[in-house]
Amino acid sequence: MDESKIMEVAQRAIAYDRDDTRRIMHFLTVWNIARMIASGEKADDDTKAVVELTAILHDIGIRNSLIKYNDALSIHQEQEGPAVANLILTEAKILDTKIVERVKFITGHHHTYSACDGQDFQMVVEADLIANSYEDDLRPATRNRIYDEFIRTETGKKLYKGIFPLESADDRLY
Ligand SMILES: [Fe+2]
Question: pTM score, two decimals?
């Protein structure tokens, strides 16, 4: 996919979330990590497009979730996300149905790890978890558990181990 299309989606997502600096910085971080993982895993062009677009849009349902439910529970943001993602992709003239439907599906399930049904979904999950592991200032034991349970790709593992000091298996707290 033409890079300018992805940049346009990012600009539109920034405009959509305009007064929430933290949320914008979060998806910009997730996007960059997702790009690194997709590149490291040698994903094909369509997969790269899905991964980058979903990384940008995965949390786009939070604003409507807050407006409608006064919370950002996973179930509500997953419910609200796909329609907004669809709107932004349409405005950016990204019309490839296969790509659009996949971005909407992953956006609508990105906290439902049991729904992870492909490498594209996995790469978005890993990028989000890496960003969240930093932003949420998690305890080392929690980071170890995330690494063991959810980080599957070689590139994701390398990034996670490079960014966070993991405890050795022997002195883990759980
Ligand atoms: Fe996120």
Answer: 0.94
